[in-house]
Amino acid sequence: MSLGIGLWYFYWRWTASLNMDALWFAIPLALAETLSFIGLLLLMFNMWQVSDTPWQPPPTSACQCDPDAEDRPVKVDVYITTYSEDPELVRLSLQAAKSLVSPPGVEIAVYCLDDGRRPDMRQVAEEEGCGYLTRSSGEGFKAGNLRNALDHTSGDFVIICDADTRIFPQFVERTLGYFRDPDVAWVQTPQWFFDLPEGESLEDAWERRWRVVGLDKLARRAARFVQRLVGPVRVGEDPFDNSPVFFYDVLLRRRNGASASFCCGAGSIHRREAVLQASLRAYAAAVEQRVTPVIAEIDDAESREVLGSAMRREMALETQVTPYKFHVSEDIYTSIVLQGDPVRPWRSVFHPEILSKMLSPQDMQSWLIQRFKYGAGTIDITLNDNPLLNYKLTLSQKLMYLMTIWSWLSCLWMPAFLLAPIIYLFTGIPPVTAFSLEFFVHFIPYIFAYELAVLIGAWGVSNGRGSSFHMAFFPYGLRAIWTVLRGEPIKFPITPKERQIGRFLHHVKWQILVIVLTVLAIAWATIAIFVLGWRTDVSGYIVNVFWGTFCIMMMMSIVRAALWRPVGEGTT
Fold first, then answer.
1. Using CA atoms in the order 304, 310, 312, 315, what is the torsion angle rounded to 10 degrees?
2. Which of 417, 424, 469, 562 could form an SS bridge with 364, CB 3.0 to 4.6 Å?
3. What is the per-residue pLDDT across 240-288, written as a single tens digit (0 to 9) for each?
4. SS3 299
5. 83 sits in which H/E element
6. Is there a contact between 165 and 85 (Cβ–Cβ < 8 Å)?
7. Which of 276, 262, 263, 255 is CA-nearest to residue 344?
8. Model's pTM, two decimal places?
9. Paired sense of beta strands 234-235 and 200-201, if any
10. Could you report the per-residue pLDDT of 68-87, keeping only the tens digit for each?
11. Measured between alpha carbons, how far is 333 from 478 in angstroms, rounded to an integer?
12. What are residue 349's phi and psi, to 5 degrees?
């Protein structure tokens, strides 16, 4: 229904609604709507059905995962990656990994991968009876750390954990059975957080805020009245919308049918053979790519063969083997390489059960570091090694990855939505021929079908706050795109594991500017129409005041997050 009504709406939008006297305004807005609709189509394709991979019990010998392997126990290595995190924080992760239940015929070894080369971290690993691995340089960052570990361990399967990952005892029991299918390269589980702020009730928050002026009892009654109208409200609950339910339970889980779920780093388990096989093939291709253009210019076959052999030896020494791609988004990049392998496309599985928890960003600065890495990494892959063009992915896989790419590119057309009410309310120039009955006849069914599609597709899972943060992220998305286009290296900052103290309004200055301009535009249009007698379309005024108010609410979500502090912080 949404598809049909959407096509009908956009046919009208492009053929009959554009204000020909203001195409500078009309076309960008119509284009932004169209690009947003394409994103909806990709989202609906992603959400179309749940197709979980059937669960199987863990194998009891290596030959049950690989028919060519000898009949011996299955070896599983657990990697806890760390760089600068508190050793005592890592100790807790090591202890959790040591508590893993080992199914019959499975051997588990735990390793601390310390890229910080710290004596106190080595001591913690030794005290916990875990292996300790480090290296002389930080080349490749986390991906290089993992490569080094693969060089010094021999497990058939590798579980990747971050320094703050608390893995559950049943992780191996619940995930290893999928590898009975010899084509499965990795299994991803939902990442969850054990430190999401629970917030406080609206009554408590308002009572505490107004107590200093003696209005605490009145504030409490007011809060109760508000909740009778809208339902229970909690203030400060997960202020950064870290809850990953929509991403994991809806988006990633429903990619199982197309084998298009990608690795998200921590909380995943990998088949060593798949990672190494794909990396060696990529290594050989990289060597050949550097040799072929040079020797192709030599006419003599014998000379060409001699030079080619010599060059291959030299290039083989200079070229690096990268089991995990050396990239800020090494997890999704490696996923694309494995799934798009031209010789042996590997399969992925998303297991929908929560089997680990970790720390979440607790301040705006940490949140932005994390999201900027996600966005810039995805855009960099798109521009420099596009998965839609350079890999042997199925059509369904390409559409799934296009949906991920599209969501990060949406910052390009988001400003058109935010500026539209500001321009109209200040100038009175409409982007459409008129906000008439014809406009509402087309627009209201389209929006209704749009919202209904998302509601049904994500049945039982709300993504309202996630959408508001996504919309408000536009300045950082634009910065990520500009960073990649300039060829500037994407930095690998570690997301802080402790809350950074302070308020971070300087990070949301563009969102504040949008709020201020929209408020001024609404105030100006109201005065101009109802006080100065400005002759304009009242229906257009109402539509744009409504849309402007909606934009303010979207921007306020991230402004409130920048101002948020846990109850009691900064007090004695």
1. -130
2. 562
3. 877 788 999 999 999 999 999 999 989 999 999 999 888 888 778 778 8
4. coil
5. none
6. no
7. 276
8. 0.88
9. antiparallel
10. 888 899 999 999 999 989 99
11. 21
12. -135, 135
